[in-house]
Design goal:
With about 325 residues, the chain is α/β, with parallel strands linked by helices. It is built from 10 helices and 7 strands. Strands 3-2-1-4-6-5-7 form a 7-stranded mixed β-sheet, with helices on both faces. The protein binds guanosine-5'-triphosphate and magnesium ion (MG). Guanosine-5'-triphosphate binds near residues 12, 42, 94, 97 and 207.
Length: about 325
């Protein structure tokens, strides 16, 4: 870039008056490779003094009249930061779990051009693993395993709310999850072959004040995030997604059909297991319909790629960026 990079730090916040001021004030205003630093707080209908304290600490505040979820808040933050001309976007939480003075370490691999996206990692370096309830630690590990399997890349922490995006990564993100964004971002960027780097950073495992706004109920968190993750996986890899389900149905059909065939070959009659023939046929039909769903999904996926490319170029044009040549995927 022939001009200093502009960094915008975005902070989604819901009733965080106890910590928001300290977090905004602690954001370093200069760091290597960065010219300007601004802070943007996305206040999701907080009923306490979050917005007022954020503003008095020097942040710009964007309001959602009613809570829409941290996923929606992050989407607003992303679009606002792009419209504000950000070259780099960092997101951190408002509850003080992340130390803003770690931002220079987080952005370094992106500023140097080694990565399009970097995330703070609580589990990459065992020496930095934070104290947290075992179920949360286990849950985080399962999420990392799932996303690593879906992207065929090894990740240690896919649920941490402290990340940095370069312009290409930010402009190519198209997120749909309202409840949260953390894992969907990984899938979105990994499927677009963005260079992803984890930076081991010490994070406070349990928030200092109040109860979690996102992970209050582990079951609610698990079910809502799984829905976001599997819908994203389905859209990017429909043949794999429906292929898996179709394969399970086909196995059931072969097993029940095989049982009936074995019974017939050993006894010379179909009774009393004619039911296995109907069940096998039913599973075969389900399996075929899954394969057709996969084919249709694959056709839609091609349109998704065209659309995302269009969106990417439209966002570049809107910014008056000369580098319209580069593509999102
Ligand atoms: N704008 C907005 N921000 C939210 C919402 N829910 C949570 N947040 C913010 O998102 C960040 C992460 O939420 P947390 O509740 O800390 O979630 P967590 O870190 O997974 O859970 P803890 O470890 O218990 O803190 C915090 O800054 C919250 O204020 C929401 O609905 N809207
Ligand atoms: Mg938190």
């Amino acid at each position: 870039m022939d001009r200093p990079l502009r960094l915008i730090v975005v902070i989604p916040a819901l009733n965080e008056e106890a910590t928001i001021e300290k977090v905004v004030l602690a954001v370093p205003r200069s760091m290597p490779g960065v010219g300007e630093v601004d802070v943007l707080v996305i206040d999701d209908g907080s009923t306490d003094r979050t917005a007022e304290l954020a503003r008095s600490a020097g942040a710009e505040v964007i309001h959602h009249t009613t809570p829409r979820g941290v996923g929606s808040a992050f989407q607003t933050a992303l679009h606002e930061a792009i419209d504000h001309g950000a070259d780099l976007i960092v997101n951190i939480d408002a509850d003080g779990q992340f130390n803003p003075t770690d931002i220079p370490r987080l952005v370094a691999p992106v500023v140097s051009g080694d990565a399009d996206f970097s995330t703070a990692s609580r589990f990459m370096d065992p020496a930095l693993e934070p104290e947290m309830p075992w179920v949360k630690r286990w849950g985080n590990r399962q999420m990392s395993r799932l996303i690593s399997g879906m992207t065929k890349q090894r990740f240690h922490d896919v649920s941490c709310g402290m990340r940095c995006y370069n312009r290409r990564a930010a402009l190519s993100l198209n997120l749909l999850g309202r409840f949260t964004y953390t894992q969907e971002v990984f899938l979105n960027l990994a499927y677009k072959h963005m260079r992803i780097v984890e930076v081991p950073i010490r994070v406070r495992g349990v928030r200092e004040f109040g109860k979690s706004r996102v992970a209050g109920s582990i079951f609610k968190y698990a079910s809502k995030t799984s829905r976001i993750i599997f819908r994203c996986y389905r859209d990017y890899h429909p043949m794999r997604f429906f292929g898996w389900i179709g394969g399970i149905f086909l196995t059931m059909s072969v097993l029940t059909g095989g049982f009936l065939l074995w019974h017939y070959l050993t006894s010379g009659v179909l009774s009393p297991h004619k039911w296995a023939g109907f069940v096998s046929g039913g599973f075969a039909i389900l399996s075929m319909s899954m394969f057709f769903a996969g084919m249709i999904g694959d056709m839609l996926n091609r349109h998704r790629i065209y659309l995302e490319e269009l969106l990417y170029r439209q966002r570049l044009m809107a910014r008056g960026d000369r580098s319209a040549g580069e593509s999102a995927e």
